[in-house]
Amino acid sequence: MNTYVLATDQIPEIRFAIPRLPAKQALSWLQSGFDDLMAAPMTGLLYGLAVAALAFLLVSLTLGINRFYLVPFIFGGFLVIAPILSVGLMAMAKHRERQDENASETVRRILAANTSGLALMGLFLLMVFINWIMLSNLLFGGVFHELMPTYSDVRPLPAMLGQSWPFALVFGGVALVLALFVFRITAVSLPMLIDQRIDPVNAAFASWRAVGDNWPAMTLWAALIAVLTTIGILTYFVGLIVVTPILGYGSWHAYRETLIPDTTAAGSRDTDI
Fold first, then answer.
1. CB atoms within 10 A of CB 45
2. Domain boundaries, the chain
3. What is d(CA 96, CA 267) in angstroms, rounded to the nearest whole number?
4. Which pLDDT tens digit goes with each residue over 118-174?
5. Helix or strand run (H / E) with residue 242
6. Dist. CA 107–CA 84, nearest whole Å
7. Looking at residue 73, what is its pLDDT?
């Protein structure tokens, strides 16, 4: 077990224990997320419906402005912004863990306790999403010389990848690096922001360390998120209604088992929300 010490001028010292977890622990987080969904199915499914509707609206607007070729790139970008859309589910999981009676009031209080930190992290993810779309557009245009093709001109993404291996390698490589970077700084930091009085920068550093120390479990968890979200999207977003709450709740359990506040250590301070 490792220890991560976070200390700033505003936060004198917080110690977090980082236990070494087996890779199969990611399956436990998925099961815990499913159990949370079954404990309150209506709430979780309504939340998932809202996220699925947002994804559908995003794609519909893209098709409406005759930018069909951007749809595959938006799918990738959706994986970037999806974590911030799940903070409400993480707050619900925290409420369920505490077994408070007034669910709606407790969730509002949890989210309001660190609104600025969540807003800054959301802004960061939004900027990553926008830059990802712009970069994808530049890669597409640079290889196929079609910066703004119409629906009738565009070719399916698999055909484009097969036609140009340089495009496939560059596009796939950039997407993988970006996805790993975003996952490593958000996998633990987002639930941490609703659990601790901490700023997003330090939460991101803590997440970077926790994910790195448990890379086998976190690698499998990232793969599960990517696969299940892709299935949810490919089912015309219907699958997202179920996938979103399971992964949102599961992310809370991943945080709780990966980065454990140690308030018993000398000099350590309780910053729990």
1. 16
2. 32-261
3. 30
4. 999 989 998 888 888 777 777 766 666 655 544 444 454 555 555 556 666 777 788
5. helix 240-258
6. 15
7. 64
